[in-house]
Design a protein that fits this description.
Number of helices: 3
Oligomer: single chain
Radius of gyration: 19 Å
Strand order of the largest sheet: 1-2-5
Shape: elongated
Number of strands: 5
Amino acid sequence: MARTEITDRLAEATGHPKAEIETLLDGFVEVLKNCNIEGDSVAIPGFGTFTPVKTEETVRTDIESGKRFLIPPAVNIRFKSSVLLRKKLIG
């Protein structure tokens, strides 16, 4: 589902203008990003938890060329849904 479809559906479901929904989504993403960069998890009761997972830098070798290259460290976000959300989705 694309971002525009999400904002359309949220605006329809809540009765709020699309511009307000987009602003709220942008704010949520910014807070989530900043918390995870700092190493903090973000838990939303009834929805789930966003947890940062840091991968260290590694040196890899290309099988075909034999060249070595550095993969920089990264912080990825893992989402684990809450039991309540899973129950609602399953039925």
